[in-house]
């Protein structure tokens, strides 16, 4: 099973990145998890609004789209800024929505870490709303939240989660997500009706 884990921030120092790196190591014997940094993506702007807009998808954006397409499931780690996801993550999702819409029907697990006690709960709810929009249409596992509060003190010097209880919680949620990925993939393989996706000038 191959997963793509998206670091949902442009911060150079982030406990959300540390959380995904821990997951990458901790579950290495079970699945392959590749990390993707969105901090170098160009800000989204709708091409039709530019007089001399190029039709090519930016290289860094295309790299993200290609990696999403190859992955069997997506993990997104989001911090919480003012009760919402960061602008850089929203911009990345807009690129996906506007171009290939490659998140459609893709199994997605949302996790989040924050310095406060709530562990990005409101940002995760915000992200679920966005991913459920028609042009994204991701498949999110219901009733699954991994909320890591007070994250600055949650890891040891080696980047490992200190709390055995939080590790056990993460293991349960992640293994359910692996099963959810398998079930979703099986379900979609039996679908006979395929929705038409919007085509853009560079796809024609």
From TrEMBL:
Gene3D superfamilies: 3.40.50.360. It comes from the Bacteria. InterPro entries: Flavoprotein-like_sf, FMN_Rdtase-like_dom, NAD(P)H-dep_reductase. SUPFAM superfamilies: Flavoproteins. GO terms for cellular component: cytosol. It holds the Pfam family FMN_red. Residues 1-151 form the NADPH-dependent FMN reductase-like domain. One of its GO terms (molecular function) is FMN binding. Belongs to the azoreductase type 2 family. PANTHER family: CHROMATE REDUCTASE (PTHR30543), NAD(P)H-DEPENDENT FMN REDUCTASE LOT6 (PTHR30543:SF21). This is NAD(P)H-dependent FMN reductase. It comes from Paenibacillus barcinonensis.
């Amino acid at each position: 099973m191959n997963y793509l884990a998206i670091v949902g921030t442009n911060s150079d120092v982030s406990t959300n990145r540390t959380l995904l790196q821990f997951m990458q190591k901790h579950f290495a014997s079970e699945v392959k998890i590749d990390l993707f940094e969105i901090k170098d993506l160009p800000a989204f702007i709708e091409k039709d609004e530019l007089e001399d807009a190029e039709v090519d998808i930016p290289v860094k954006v295309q790299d993200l789209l290609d990696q999403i397409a190859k992955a069997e499931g997506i993990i997104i780690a989001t911090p919480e800024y003012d009760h919402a996801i960061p602008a850089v993550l929203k911009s990345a999702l807009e690129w996906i929505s506007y171009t290939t819409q490659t998140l459609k029907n893709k199994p997605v697990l949302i996790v989040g870490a924050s310095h406060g006690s709530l562990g990005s709960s409101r940002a995760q709810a915000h992200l679920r709303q966005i991913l459920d929009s028609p042009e994204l249409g991701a498949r999110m596992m219901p009733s699954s939240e991994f909320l890591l509060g007070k994250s600055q003190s949650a890891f040891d010097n080696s980047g490992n989660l200190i709390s055995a209880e939080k590790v056990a919680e993460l293991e349960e949620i992640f293994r359910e997500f692996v099963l959810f990925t398998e079930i979703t993939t099986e379900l979609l393989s039996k679908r006979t009706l395929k929705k038409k996706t919007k085509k853009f000038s560079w796809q024609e």
